[in-house]
Here is the input.
Amino acid sequence: ETFAGNTFEGNTLLVALQNWQAQFSSSKLRVIADAGMLSKLNVQKLTLAGFDFIVGARLKSVPASLTKKLLKLEREDGITHELKHNGHRLIVHYSLKRAKKDLNTIDKALKKAQAIIDGKQSLKRRSKFVMSSKVASQDKTVTEATLSLNQPAIDQDKALAGLKGYITNLTEVSSEEIISQYKELIHVEQSFRMSK
Here is the structure.
């Protein structure tokens, strides 16, 4: 099935899945997708339509109460924890390799943020590590924006380094199997890259 080129993939998912199931399968489909594909609304639609799913979780944008729990999790290479989020299982896995990669990514983002603050890079693409505050001139006739590092965001990202989350509605499948199935997604993405 094809959709108009300007149609967001997240808006086509449920229709495509229902058509696929009607045409090719009498068994239940399981959706495995990265966080960019499945919004909270799409997860609700999948649940209402009766689909099973495993979705990459955006741990950096969860509610503060859940962030506090994440920050308290034990960090030992290969350890897996299970929490609840929006009525679903949230499986959180820690990897030392991922922590190193995440910290490297944060360092690169910090360099870009500092370049924006120093005026060496444009503000076309906003960095979450840069915050803007307005300062009035002494005579209060002109208000200027000053840029600075967003230290709370930096600290939070560093504290979450190494954690990867998976949200699922599967209750009878082990955490290890959930992670294993999600990791198969990379092969699908690689095949799409090759076909482009």
Remarks:
- The beta strands are 30-33, 52-57, 80-85, 88-94, 130-136, 143-149, 163-168.
- The longest helix spans residues 96-117.
